[in-house]
Amino acid sequence: DAKTTQPTSMDCAEGRAANLPCNHSTISGNEYVYWYRQIHSQGPQYIIHGLKNNETNEMASLIITEDRKSSTLILPHATLRDTAVYYCIVRVASGTYKYIFGTGTRLKVLA
Amino acid sequence: KAGVTQTPRYLIKTRGQQVTLSCSPISGHRSVSWYQQTPGQGLQFLFEYFSETQRNKGNFPGRFSGRQFSNSRSEMNVSTLELGDSALYLCASSLEGQGLELFFGEGSRLTVL
User: Residue B83: which pLDDT band, with cuts at 50, 70 and 90?
Assistant: First the structure.
């Protein structure tokens, strides 16, 4: 699985968009980008995933660059409940369910 | 629809003992994977089971083992506990097919004294 690089921490004002970057320069053509988040003392929660097109769901948007070497998770209107560690993972979307989690980005939403 | 259920939620053991943790996946999910989370190492993959077969294994010593039953419920066992085994053990289940979204339980927090 390709490695990812994320900033260690970020702050965001409540109500503003939170943009969380992720670098995955060694991503392969058949690897997807997945985002999970972990709120303190809970199990990680799936947010979104994509291959090369931008994706949007009720939680967030995922923007993947054309060369697929980086992506950005966007929380359009961050709330205090979005304070969590956000993990960006790249992996193939079939076969084994082994995920390699990095250290993630600790997002703090400020009132 | 019930989520992933892990038991027990908290437990305390002493060095040298063994522990068994249980995981009930979401109904219909046949894949169950286990992760260890510690402050120093983060989230690390332990193993994954599908249809009672171990499909993949992480880089952990043989003291860590698991199994899956015909109803997809899974157990993991750690023998000869060490202080460093203190961690949050997370179980995740998934529906086979495209997407591979993991649904995590709340975890079992193990403290080894």
Answer: very high
